[in-house]
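Narrative of accomplishments. A recurring question from our advisory board has been how the design workflow behaves on a single, concrete structure rather than in aggregate. To address it, we present the structure tokens for one chain from the evaluation set, followed by the sequence designed for it. No filtering or post-editing was applied between the two.
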């Protein structure tokens, strides 16, 4: 690999392979009146002589625990089967980490509006888990990128979405 200046460089890459759920989420078509990040799919068919464009919503899979399904249907606040957990990079200065966590957890009010309590949580990287890797697809992270030159655009968001259901599988924010 070479840079634009024709100097060679080494790139370190990570690959994660996970088993997807047997039953994917039902995809949801986007609507411009709702503030979602859509994912456009182009549909080609022999039946119609045109390219059909369909926008789908990227979203998290938030479901009530099996024992709380009836309570959820009755409008009670319940906890999700699997909360969304964001891990905060210890390289982020200590004075900012508290506010980053508060910013993540401010989204809790939105999840409560749809019937879920404790649906989104921000935590420090686990120091006692040898299997934790911020590059692992199973973990959502907010990290800081330290480099000599500042990034002109400020931040980078990486989102991996399962095409069949448009479920967000992984998300990473690098500042």
């Amino acid at each position: 690999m070479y840079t634009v200046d024709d100097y060679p460089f080494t790139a370190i890459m990570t690959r994660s392979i996970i088993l997807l759920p047997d039953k994917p989420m039902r995809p949801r078509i986007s609507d411009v009146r709702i503030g979602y990040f859509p994912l456009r799919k182009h549909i080609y068919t022999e039946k119609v002589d045109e390219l059909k464009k369909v926008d789908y919503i990227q979203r998290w899979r938030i479901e009530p625990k099996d024992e709380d399904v009836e309570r959820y249907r009755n409008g009670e606040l319940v906890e999700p089967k699997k909360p969304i957990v964001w891990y905060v990079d210890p390289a982020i200065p200590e004075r900012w980490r508290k506010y980053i966590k508060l910013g993540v957890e401010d989204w809790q009010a939105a999840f409560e509006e749809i019937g879920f309590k404790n649906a989104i949580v921000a935590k420090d990287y686990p120091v006692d888990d040898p299997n934790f890797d911020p590059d692992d697809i199973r973990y959502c992270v907010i990290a800081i990128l330290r480099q000599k030159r500042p990034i002109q655009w400020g931040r980078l968001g990486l989102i991996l979405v399962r095409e069949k259901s448009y479920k967000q599988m992984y998300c990473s924010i690098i500042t």
